[in-house]
Design a protein that fits this description.
Layout: E1 11-15, H1 20-24, H2 28-33, H3 39-58, E2 80-87, E3 90-97, E4 103-110, H4 118-122, H5 125-137, H6 143-162, E5 171-177, E6 184-191, E7 197-198, E8 201-202, E9 205-213, E10 216-223
Antiparallel strand pairs: 1-3, 2-3, 4-10, 5-6, 6-9, 7-8, 9-10
Length: 226
């Protein structure tokens, strides 16, 4: 699901359901991070790290621990950047060489309505208006959940470039269905605060893709070098 949203230099590995062997394969440093976590959290933590290690191997990089850094963002081996996501029944990791992309972010969520009150907390007024129009045209898609996922992917791509928090209200995201289908499309995130500077160019927007498949939605944002 995630891999269809990403350009060719990116390697994505997905998992569906629990990988019973993944927890046993954790490095000691990783196991220490989730030593006090509930079993569900440990399984998810282990599953996406198993995906990340398989992605490293596909890129020709020796597998190594993936430890959380500042604000929980994964610390990748030198020369790589990437993103991970997990939710009930699905997990994925995507990695790319920093020579090919400046940053990326992925997110997957259950294809179900957001809990009451959450949309009002994450959506700008114009975003909410656009979601209302999309829901009228394509009522089978949970657009509120898709917007939440897109916000998460934008943040995951933003943070490695800036090292600072990006609030839900600091990016205006436009979700656009592909012609002829409401189940896949593109997204454009207009940054409402000063964006990161790459090679002397300040970015004012991020772009990506999204899809709705089965019981999940997925989004991906990639940041190319200027």
């Amino acid at each position: 699901m995630i891999d269809e949203l990403l350009p060719e230099p990116v390697v994505a590995v997905e998992t569906y359901g629990d990988d019973e062997a993944a927890e046993a394969a954790l490095y000691p440093q990783e196991r220490a991070v989730v030593a006090r976590a509930v079993p569900k959290r440990r399984r998810e933590f282990a599953a996406v790290r198993a995906c990340a290690r398989r992605a490293m191997e596909k890129l020709g990089v020796p597998a190594r621990p993936v430890l959380p850094g500042e604000r929980g963002a994964p610390r990748w081996p030198e020369g790589l950047t990437g993103s991970m996501t997990h939710c009930d029944g699905y997990g994925a990791a995507a990695l790319v060489r920093t020579a090919d992309l400046a940053s990326l972010g992925i997110d997957a969520e259950p294809h179900a309505p957001l809990p009451d009150g959450l949309l009002e907390a994450i959506a700008l007024p114009e975003e909410a208006r656009r979601l209302t129009r999309l829901a009228e045209l394509h009522p089978t898609v949970h657009w509120d959940r898709l917007l939440f996922s897109a916000k998460e992917s934008v943040y995951k791509a933003w943070f490695p470039l800036t090292g600072v928090w990006l609030d839900f209200a600091e990016a205006d995201i436009d979700l656009r269905p592909a012609p002829g289908t409401p189940h896949t499309g593109t997204l454009r995130a207009r940054l409402l605060v000063a964006g990161p500077v790459l090679n002397g160019h300040r970015l004012d927007c991020f772009e990506g893709r999204w899809t709705v498949g089965g019981s999940h939605v997925a989004t991906a944002v990639t940041v190319p070098h200027p």
